[in-house]
């Protein structure tokens, strides 16, 4: 017998959020109920094979049911070259890790994150180390709030 969530096509479990940049990938994860978001790590990008291997390690640790990828949409909703590149990489993530990938507008996540860290009194060097992980957390928080 299916649960009410299964009948509606919903899945329970964790969501992993990615803030994909050219040099780093910020990673955040939700709790199993999909209520809270926590920054996990920042992956230093080397090449696609190593990037996917590092993501696979995080996936194995948290066992998410989906991956959420931040996309920097243009103000008119179109995709610029950076957004298209992130979508292509996301497709390889989906194929390699065999998990559904969803997209979320992350246009202001880094600015929001940086302001939050400045307001918390964090110095420039430390902000630089955590900004991508924080941006992934902001993306995930917005997504989780939209579902509730």
Task: Provide structural commentary.
There is one protein chain. With 148 residues, the protein is of the alpha/beta class. The protein has one domain (12-147): 2-Layer Sandwich (Nucleotidyltransferase, domain 5), CATH 3.30.420.140. The chain has 5 helices and 5 strands. It has a 5-stranded mixed β-sheet with strand order 3-2-1-4-5, sandwiched between helices. Helix 2 (48-62) crosses helix 3 and helix 4 (109-119) crosses helix 5. The longest helix has 24 residues, at 124-147. It starts with a helix and ends with a helix. Residues 1-11 have low confidence and may be disordered.
In short:
By secondary structure, the chain is of the alpha/beta class.
Q: Could you state the order of secondary-structure elements as H and E?
A: HEEEHEHEHH
Q: Major sheet: size, sense and barrel closure?
A: 5 strands, mixed
Mean pLDDT: 85
Shape: globular
Q: Beta-strand level of the residues, as a percent range?
A: 15-25%
CATH superfamily: YqgF/RNase H-like domain
Query: What's the tally of helices?
Result: 5
Report Rg: 15 Å
CATH class: Alpha Beta
Overall number of strands = 5
| Named CATH topology | Nucleotidyltransferase, domain 5
Structural class: alpha/beta
When the domains are counted, the total is 1
Main β-sheet, spatial strand arrangement: 3-2-1-4-5
The residue fraction in helices comes out at: 40-55%
Report how far the terminal alpha carbons are from each other.
25 Å
- What CATH architecture do you see? 2-Layer Sandwich
